[in-house]
């Protein structure tokens, strides 16, 4: 919008002597030049803001009349304001009277012109305002998203046509009917701190599913209302559901022949059906291995889909973190590995976490460590310890790397807010003296399908760390590492130390 | 000779059922095969096996329903096996009172024998 033009006060005050001077120089009232004094008045009025303009005009006229009344020609002898034939006091008063009348008329005309001009301006402004309002109204109405504006008490102030299709507003301007999953009015009322992030809501109305946000409106620090924006996501949800059903179906269908193959190959390898030549048994080994890879892939897709579709359910219960480590290490008992568990001196108290998922992550990391050991003389030390948030913070500023954050598409699903308020963590660390991670690859190791340069000699698809990261973040935990190429890596699986509730 | 312990294997995947049976028999048990849910339930009632391995996706009556029926009368060990690997399926199985829920692709022949031994 155009800014209204105003001039500084000194121009106004400069105008007054100019007017006075013009009046003074043009001679008497009879002079046609008198009207000239109106020009600066109108000029001043037009360009200077309304009040100042009128003040200037009135002030100039007053000055002029004082001069006439006092017959100032006595002060300046060569100049006469009054006609010379007026001599008596009566005539003089009459003359002044007429002049005042005349004067008023002129001022009235000037003001009329001024007001007319201002009114026109105002009309123009109103018109453009109305146009602007209309435009906004049209945008508001044509929005595909439903928008509802309420005041601070939750009374509905405005809603667009999309919103009218969802909500029915009663006479006293409140939302009618119950919306399951969302006590809308309550939510609208409770929300309202300046620092409050937009509140994400999802609710059902009849058969449709809606998702949206509520944002508070502020004037200064106080809430004057709230805006709810939401859209119908029924169709999107249906498609998501179809996709996830399809992946579940596919994973089931693929798993079926794989499970068969696995057992049949195992049976052959177990020599229950008769002895095998060396080459035969080697071939079967390869087959078994490839089957495992396929199964891993199928598992990965299913896991990923579960996380991406937000179906990952967390089953947190009190557990000893060490038990989990002991159980997993048990699986490696028969193998020739220098694998040690550095037990904490005293058993750490139980904490509440999803054991199955942390176990999966731990197994992933351990598998990696074993895979990337330098042949022969590799060593892995596993330990469990408690670490305070402050210490962890220091470590993260130091050598421990969280590396690339979880991809944006997860952030909505995985709620990093769960970490808030955690004062201590349990740290399951897996230290190896394997090949380590090259510096340039360290930022990337948690990315999907990424493989470090020196890791490519080993089989793998680059899914384990990515999935582990996604799982840990969704549990409110963390996963980080420190590593030097050629020297080895230490991974830290961090679980927030949530104490069990006393029953 | 003492009578062999009877184990029920219910799976409509014939190849899978066949190798399971072969292996369990090798381990020294007797196996009754069922290819659908109703058959499985009939065997449970008639032959009173000591142990059951149930597939989840069975024709006529699914494994979960069979398990529910079994649990109405008996506490016998029942291991659910399936190619359904989603957590919701596992949870459902465990909630219905399964002794264990194993995803088929995770199962090895070695496991089968040891699981039976463990739960009997």
Features of this protein?
heterodimer, A: 503 residues, alpha+beta, five-stranded antiparallel beta sheet, 14 strands, elongated, B: 120 residues, alpha/beta, five-stranded parallel beta sheet, 5 helices, 46% helix
Q: How far apart lie the N and C ends of chain B?
A: 20 Å
What percent strand of chain A?
15-25%
Order of strands, main sheet of chain A, comes to 2-1-7-6-5
Q: Would you identify the regions of chain B where 5 or more consecutive residues have pLDDT less than 50? A: none
Overall average residue pLDDT of chain A: 76
Can you summarize the main beta sheet of chain A? 5 strands, antiparallel
Number of strands of chain B: 5
Which term fits the overall shape of chain B?
A: globular
Bulk shape of chain A: elongated
- Helicity range of the residues of chain A? 40-55%
**Mean pLDDT over the full residue set of chain B:** 89
N-to-C order of helices and strands of chain B: EHEHEHEHEH
